[in-house]
Specification:
Layout lengths: L2 E5 L2 E4 L4 E8 L6 E8 L6 E6 L6 E3 L7 E6 L4 E6 L8 E9 L14 E2 L3 E6 L1
Parallel strand pairs: 2-11
Antiparallel strand pairs: 1-3, 3-8, 4-5, 4-9, 5-6, 7-8, 9-10, 9-11
Length: about 130
């Protein structure tokens, strides 16, 4: 069993930056792909970014490409999301998720993830 805990959310002005962290416990996630999803009020949860098990490859939603950077540190059993040039439409609850690195299919498919964090609120004010 893997427990995921996010931290680093908060309130920031448009144009600002935040860095989210997600730390795993219970077992090592070095062999797991990990991703960030977000859900804004009244909207469906959506994929934001994902990192393969080694951390060598990262994938992004078009809406955040060039602004957000996902990274994975297996030594720290953690995944991170650096968010720059934040916009009001980035306001959402951000959750991290983990799945075995051998799981087939798109990393953007939330149904393929086994473990989820509780989420961290990110609010961007204008």
């Amino acid at each position: 069993q893997v427990q995921l805990v996010e931290s680093g959310g908060g309130l920031v002005q448009a144009g600002g930056s935040l860095r989210l962290s997600c730390t795993a416990s219970g077992r090592t996630v070095s062999g797991y792909s990990m991703a960030w999803f977000r859900q804004a009020p009244g909207k469906e949860r959506e994929f934001v970014a994902g990192v393969n098990w080694s951390g060598a490859f990262a994938y992004y939603a078009d809406s955040v490409k060039g602004r957000f950077t996902a990274s994975k540190d297996n030594a720290k059993n953690s995944v991170f999301l650096q968010m720059n040039s934040l916009q009001t439409e980035d306001t959402a609850v951000y959750s991290c998720a983990a799945r075995p690195g051998t799981t087939p299919g798109s990393i953007a498919n939330e149904r393929s993830f086994l473990y989820w964090g509780q989420g961290s609120q990110v609010t961007v004010s204008s």
